[in-house]
Design a protein that fits this description.
elongated; alpha+beta; two-stranded antiparallel ribbon; 21% helix; 62 residues
Amino acid sequence: RFYRVPGTQQTGSGLGLAIARNLADKIGAQLRVTEGLDDRGIGFIIDLPESYRPQTESEPRP
């Protein structure tokens, strides 16, 4: 569940990460933490399972 740490000075609601984690869990994806852009903050990557990845033109269609 989402909760905000008392005394936090950051802007925004912080709900984005909670929503992304919930969606990733529901579809079997993994949510990873990375370095933020321009050395600011942190970033997140969602690794989708194969069933959610688009097929390329070279891949045969089922």
